[in-house]
Amino acid sequence: NKSAMLNNCVVVNPPLRYIKFSDPRKVAELDKRWPQLKYSNFYGTDTQPLWRREFLKHGSCGINRYKQPAYFDLAMNLKDKFDLLSTLRNHGITPGSTYQLDDIEKAVMTVSIKVPSLKCIEKPPGNV
């Protein structure tokens, strides 16, 4: 098995477009699983900047197989199948505490095949 980063994969003609979700039920499903935390709830669900960016960046990789609705349905199904927060909690890892990277990787690997690609960010300075 070979792995690859799935972003900005292909240039398609016509260019890949994001079609804003208008069905309130679909918007609610997406918002529950993929909230747009940088924006107010109304702006995020009305303008959908996060979903647009993620689809245009990653959806290009499977556009021949997964058109936009299928891409988001797949993303939501994977989120439900691999509930990362529950997996971490089941291994004693909860938000707000400090853990060794190895412990987090081991917990994630109980539901995945590969070692996860984890990154630390510093926000605000001094808090990683």
Automatic annotation (TrEMBL):
One of its GO terms (molecular function) is RNA binding. One of its GO terms (cellular component) is extracellular region. Keywords: Endonuclease, Hydrolase, Lyase, Nuclease. It comes from Lycium ferocissimum. GO terms for biological process: RNA catabolic process. Belongs to the RNase T2 family. SUPFAM superfamilies: Ribonuclease Rh-like. Gene3D superfamilies: Ribonuclease T2-like. Coiled coil: none annotated. It comes from the Eukaryota. This is Self-incompatibility ribonuclease.
